[in-house]
Amino acid sequence: MNLRRIFEEHPERRYIMFGGKGGLGKTTFSAATAYWLASQGKKVLVFSVDPQASLSDIFQRDIFGKGPVQIMENLWAQEIDADQHIKAYQEEIRRKILDMYGFDSIPDEIEQYIQAASAEPAMEESAIFDAVVDIVVEGKYDYYIYDLVPLGHALYYLSMAKVYDEWINKITKLREEMREYEEMVARLKRQKETEEDRILSELQYIRGRINASSRILTDKEKTAFFFVIVPEEMILIDTRKAAELFARFDVPISGYVVNRVVPRELLNQNIPPYLRNRIQMQEKYLRQIDEMFGNQVVARVPELERDVTGLEMISRLAGIMYGK
Amino acid sequence: MREFFYGMFSLEFVSHAVEMRTSMENLFMLSTVGDMIGLPIIPPYYSLRLLPYLVPQISLWKRRMLREREFTDEHDYHLEGL
Asked: Is A154 within 8 Å of A148 (Cβ atoms)?
């Protein structure tokens, strides 16, 4: 299998994700893949959900919190500013309270809650999660490329979706029961119909959002998830564990991309023992990778002589990954 | 007349239903904005969405949950036989 074939044979896989430990090249591959798809005439959005995003660095443009920024023809990039998103959201909640009750200001205990809630560590993840739904549900692009956060966060994301979903189900049921009692009281007291329960419709909305986002991550048809690995022992051990966890959350794994492979041809040159040893070490792990993942290994990407930043290098890398 | 029948037949049902509704309300508030009284149940992103609708109930609910009480308050235990 190779990367290009996967894209050609599965044009329905429109949500592309690169996941892996930090610093292995997720952003680089996201950018290169976005570049290649865009140059094939597809409309592509590559976006980052990482609070420490590096798309700005790789495209050498400051795009943080600016919405989708066009990088070149067919290619947009976006870095979600979670803080900004949370602030806007808090403001929306305050506005709603003021409007609903005609207050001049938010009551103290409510305001305290809004602030305390937003300081929770989970707030940022949830905010990003939610922002992603907005981006993807709009459906304006042919391809969405997630520059994913490191593995742990991604797993947290997924497990959160499950927890949320269960929570919402329970609450919704409880709310429905409450409503039944309310109706019963109204009937017995011969009052008119109870008004529509807005909390219930809000809960249903929330459930829709959560389902939408976890569906995207676990959609076998439309999602392609690639693990980025490098030929090193610790990475392999971690990746194998992570892959098992991902499988448990039903994330469809489309393949493994091996990064930072030192070109073997160098062995024919007069190179220092240091480099020779590295190449031999990598060979050992490359063999292990092939044994472990077999034909799920979709690309081997060489260690380049300089880092990948700027469109020129991205284009070169895209050439290596997908062919011209 | 209608009031009379209401009092005779329905009052007890109604007060029972209201009671049930209240205890469910407690449960509901607890599981949505429970972190307000120190019980973090879920990440609060979505509970904030519900907050505007809960505003009128909040202070009453907090008072209900946090007031000191005897364990016998919750139910009318019949302790006569003891």
From this structure: yes
